[in-house]
Specification:
Radius of gyration of chain A: 19 Å
CATH topology of the largest domain in chain B: Beta-Lactamase
Largest interface: A-B, 20 and 17 residues
CATH architecture of chain A: 3-Layer(aba) Sandwich
Distance between the termini of chain A: 60 Å
Strand order of the largest sheet of chain A: 3-4-2-5-6-7-8
Shape of chain B: rod-shaped
CATH class of the largest domain in chain B: Alpha Beta
CATH superfamily of chain A: Response regulator
Number of strands of chain A: 9
Oligomer: heterodimer
Strand order of the largest sheet of chain B: 2-1-5-4-3
Number of strands of chain B: 17
Distance between the termini of chain B: 60 Å
Largest sheet of chain A: 7 strands, mixed
Structural class of chain B: alpha+beta
CATH architecture of the largest domain in chain B: 2-Layer Sandwich
CATH class of chain A: Alpha Beta
Low-confidence stretches of chain A: 1-7, 9-26
Structural class of chain A: alpha/beta
CATH superfamily of the largest domain in chain B: PAS domain
Strand content of chain B: 15-25%
Number of helices of chain A: 7
């Protein structure tokens, strides 16, 4: 019994040390690693209307419009995970017309100038728009990455999301930073 | 249990009610309590699990986005739950991400159960709840709640409630019990009260209140009343018969009493005690040694001893003693009693005191009179004897004087003178005596003459010697008579064992001359080998001489036939000798035969009618008897004196003056 307790203690101490090490290694994840994880989490807290998918097993497509700032980070984060029996697929779009056939559209900063146009073209479709630029949500974007006190946060324009038929979980909404 | 048994019935019912009520309550409360505890435990655990699930669910976003602020906010919402001691959120890699309350450390985290389970430890409920987002575990919630405190709080609350319930229900039970119990205890107490009154005041006229009909208590009260009624009538009958009894007891001419056989303490004494001795019954009953103290000092020791002896003997008894009455009189009491014996032990003595003072006085008077009579009779007897003696002595003296005259005459006419003449003749012839005797004619006759003188003198001497002898005999007779008289006079009251024939001869000797004078033929018929009789010589003589005198008198008038007296001495029966004096005198008429022994009866002119009466008494005193028989006037009479022989028990002769039980 005593031996068991001691073993347990040693084990947990080793574990703790390992965790600490792990943490120390990942203590400085890059900005886009975090944003990739966030992006994946956004998917988890959002519900799409059924018409947004071709069928029950149709994949959830995360599209990137413009320059890809994630590099391989997003791919690594998602891996081959599925969500609600749907596989996750990452697509990089060059043209605006392609960009309609996705569930999440990350609008790269390179597309800031034609943002209004992009958002306008997405009207009527159930696409969750995510950006990382000023006035993204004011312009009609749904989720916008911001940095507050050196921490990556996000803003949500739930009105736009509702217009698109998307339901963003209140849990996610409660984490959102105030707009403006 | 004994204390309970002695409680008053009302208290008993209360205690019973409370005990029943308390027991039922305790059992119910215990069952409820166990159920509540079990219920509380599962409820508490379920609540905690629910809480953990909610928190975990709500923390998914904060965990997913590693938003510390949001996560801390989330767990801090548990503040509203006072039972929650701590809540910690850990990232999948084990990093403690956010916490509320006391911070857990690695060591305390080890107490927690595996993920999804709960554990009770040290009064805490520990829950490990996974935080899962879309099938992916994004963290772990460690929730620590204070089970014990809540449980103790609950216990305290329950305690208060139980105490309250107990108080209220016991109060209710007491109230109901006293209200409902009154229908049972009320009649019982009333009955008890009635019984108490009856017991204390001996008043059987009271009745118990019958408060209900048909039930047992009502029946009991009715039966009780019925019983009282019966007792009352019995009591009345009893007191009536007691009054009768008492009247009877108090009307008895004597003191009825009851006393203890050991201490002689009187437990009952009738009112006659006041009349006879002047002491109230109360005085007898109250004072322990009353009887002993009031005994006459001379009788006290003996009476006490006798009384106690009688008590131990346990038989009916009677004895006499004197007591001193209240006014100082001496009262003779005859105590007759019986001893009550139970299981071999004397338990009480009951009897009667009779006042026999008057009897005693009468007896004393009678005794005195008797003694006087006896003295008189003795004197009379003595006079008789003396007369007899003098008579005999006189008679004998006559003979003596005749003999003396005869001797004197003989001596005067003695032949001694002839001898003197012959001797003078011889003296004249002094010197030639031989010549005278041979030659003188006178001288020649002298030797023959002297021879005849000598013969005459010898004859004379013989005659005188005979006469003197006779005279000596007579004198001896006188001496005998006098000595006998002295002898009888001396031995009065003394019992001796003597041969009966000798006694008879003695008496006859005194009367022989009288019989001769009256020409009475005396016939002796004495049996041989008779046993000695035990008699008072004097009394015997008195009786027997009286009988001889009576016989002599009876024959004085008989002239036509020879007077004949027969004295017969024989054995009457074993132990008794009879002496019969039978004469052929005038006899006794049948009508007088019964009266001859009566005091004052006589047929003689100079008689005092006492001789036979005192003779019969004397015979009785000696343990014998005197009886008379006659065939009628002119046919003689026969008197029989019976006397006990020596072998007979002496007690017949000495009538007891002591108590005879």
């Amino acid at each position: 019994m005593r031996f068991g307790a001691t073993l347990h203690l040693c084990l947990s101490l080793t574990l703790l040390l390992a965790v600490g090490n792990g943490r120390a290694q990942n203590s400085q994840p890059s900005e886009y690693q975090i944003k990739a994880a966030f992006l994946f989490n956004f998917v988890k807290f959002t519900e799409w209307p059924p018409k947004a998918f071709a069928d029950a097993t149709a994949p959830i497509v995360i599209g990137i419009l413009g320059d890809n700032p994630f590099g391989d980070d997003l791919k690594q984060t998602i891996g081959d995970k599925t969500l609600n029996n749907r596989p996750l697929v990452i697509k990089e779009f060059r043209s605006l017309t392609e960009a309609v056939n996705c569930q999440v559209l990350f609008v790269s900063s390179s597309e800031q100038n034609r943002l209004t146009e992009i958002l306008k073209s997405l009207q009527g479709s159930s696409v969750l728009t995510v950006g990382e630029m000023d006035h993204f949500t004011e312009t009609g974007g749904m989720i916008n990455f911001v940095t507050r006190e050196k921490k990556i946060r996000f803003q949500i324009n739930n009105t736009e999301a509702s217009k698109a038929g998307l339901k963003i979980s209140s849990k996610l909404l409660s984490l959102a930073a105030p707009t403006g | 249990m004994k204390r309970f048994r002695n409680l008053p019935i009302r208290r008993k019912m209360l205690v019973m009610t409370l005990l029943i009520c308390g027991t039922v309550l305790c059992v119910a409360i215990a069952a409820l309590f166990v159920f509540q505890v079990l219920n509380f435990r599962s409820n508490f655990q379920r609540d905690a699990a629910t809480l953990a699930a909610i928190i975990a669910n709500n923390s998914t976003a904060a965990m997913a986005f590693k938003d510390e602020t949001a996560a801390t906010e989330m767990v801090s919402s548990l503040q509203a739950r006072p039972t929650v001691l701590s809540a910690s959120l850990a990232l999948p890699d084990g990093f403690l991400f956010a916490h509320f309350g006391k911070a857990e450390n690695a060591r305390s985290l080890m107490q927690f159960p595996p993920v999804g389970e709960h554990r009770f430890s040290d009064g805490h409920l520990l829950l490990t709840q996974p935080v899962v987002l879309k099938n992916e575990r994004v963290g772990t919630l460690y929730l620590r709640t204070d089970y014990q405190r809540t449980f103790l709080e609950l216990l305290g609350f329950y305690g208060q409630v139980i105490a309250g319930v107990m108080v209220v229900s016991i109060g209710l039970a007491m109230f109901l019990s006293s209200r409902l119990g009154r229908t049972i205890t009320g009649p019982v107490l009333q009955l008890a009260q009635t019984a108490k009154i009856v017991g204390e005041k001996k008043d059987y006229s009271v009745r118990a209140v019958v408060s209900s009909r048909g039930d047992e208590l009502g029946g009991l009260a009715e039966s009780f009343n019925e019983m009282l009624g019966r007792i009352e009538s019995q009591d009345a009958a009893l007191s009536l018969s007691q009054q009768k009894m008492e009247a009877l007891i108090h009307s008895i001419d004597g003191v009825v009493w009851e006393r203890t056989p050991d201490t002689f303490r009187f437990t009952f004494i009738s009112r006659q005690s006041e009349k006879i001795l002047g002491y109230t019954p109360q005085a007898w009953l109250n004072q322990p040694n009353f009887w002993e103290e009031k005994l006459h000092p001379q009788d006290a020791a003996k009476a006490t001893e006798t009384g106690h002896n009688m008590a131990t003997r346990g038989e009916p008894y009677s004895f006499e003693y004197r007591m001193v009455a209240a006014d100082g009189r001496t009262v003779w009491i005859r105590e007759s009693g019986t001893v009550l014996v139970e299981k071999g032990c004397p338990v009480a003595m009951r009897g009667i005191f009779h006042d026999i003072t008057q009897h005693k006085l009468d007896a004393e008077q009678l005794d005195k009179l008797n003694r006087q009579l006896i003295d008189t009779s003795r004197n009379a007897g003595m006079a008789d004897v003396a007369t007899g003696v003098l008579h005999n002595v006189g008679n004998v003296l006559n003979s003596v004087s005749v003999s003396a005259t005869l001797v004197g005459e003989r001596l005067r006419r003695s032949k001694v003178a002839n001898l003197r003449r012959a001797t003078a003749m011889l003296r004249e012839q002094n010197g030639h005596l031989a010549e005278f005797l041979t030659s003188d004619p006178k001288g020649k006759l002298l030797p023959e003459y002297l021879g005849s003188v000598a013969d005459q003198l010898a004859a004379e001497q013989t005659e005188l010697v005979t006469e003197v002898d006779s005279m000596g005999e007579h004198i001896e007779h006188i001496k005998e008579i006098v000595a006998m008289q002295q002898n009888y006079a001396k031995v009065s009251g003394l019992y001796e064992n003597l041969p009966p024939t000798e006694l008879v001869e003695d008496a006859l000797r005194l009367n022989l001359t009288a019989f001769e004078r009256h020409r009475i033929e005396l016939v002796r018929e004495f049996a041989d080998n008779l046993p000695k009789v035990s008699v008072d010589r004097h009394k015997f003589l008195q009786v027997f001489i009286n009988l001889l005198r009576n016989a002599k008198h009876a024959m004085e008038e008989v002239t036509e036939r020879p007077r004949r007296m027969v004295i017969r001495v024989a054995l009457a029966s074993p132990g008794r000798v009879k002496i019969v004096v039978s004469d052929n005198g005038i006899g006794i008429p049948p009508e007088n035969l019964n009266k001859v022994f009566n005091h004052g009866f006589t047929t003689k002119k100079d008689g005092h009618g006492f001789g036979l009466h005192s003779g019969a008494n004397a015979a009785k005193e000696m343990g014998g008897s005197l009886s008379a028989r006659s065939d009628g006037p002119g046919k003689g009479a026969e008197f029989t004196l019976e006397l006990p022989t020596t072998a007979t028990d002496s007690k017949h002769r000495h009538p007891e003056t002591q108590a005879t039980a």
